Amino acid sequence: EVELDTITFSSAISACEKGGEWDKALQLFSVATRSKVESNRITINAAISACEKCGKWKEALHLFTMMAQRKEVGTICLNASIGACATGGAWEKALQMFHEASRSEVEVDAMTCSMVIESCEKVGERERAIRVFGVLVLRLLSTSFFQHLLGRPADNSMITLETDPSPATIAPTHALNI
After folding, report:
1. Is 6 exposed, middle or buried (CB count within 10 Å of its CB: 0-12, 13-18, 19+)?
2. Residue 161 dihedral angles phi and psi, to the nearest 5°
3. Which end of the chain has less Cβ packing within 10 Å, N or C?
4. pLDDT in tens, 101-121
């Protein structure tokens, strides 16, 4: 007999994600929720990834909101949600999520930037894509490379974005102390 628990549902949802069956993944997630099976990051990330593969950005954002309410949003969840927006043609939502994540404690990585750049590029928003690339470059320069050279923790506070996603402004708040 198979026990219906978090691991079982996570595995089944992940299998649906890999097979491009986003609707079945969401059905399983719904069954797990109704059955009072605790969903964790892995379960929800698998469901978001299933939505991403098919560009079902509204569904992905619903799940993302669940994670945000639990204060469990991580880079994987963010990237899958932004990916769903990018795949589904919701480039403005992808850009908005990127801006919000850049001001939060969620780590924005090269994959995050790449997906936002690609979604902006698809709709001819090259200037915005270039600005997102600038954020990536500033983050890379302010993190590991300089951290290693200087032998001290990097200060990422130099990177800020205005809250209005039209067009983003990268504004260093202070220079690197080299």
Report:
1. middle
2. -130, 145
3. N
4. 888 888 888 888 888 998 899
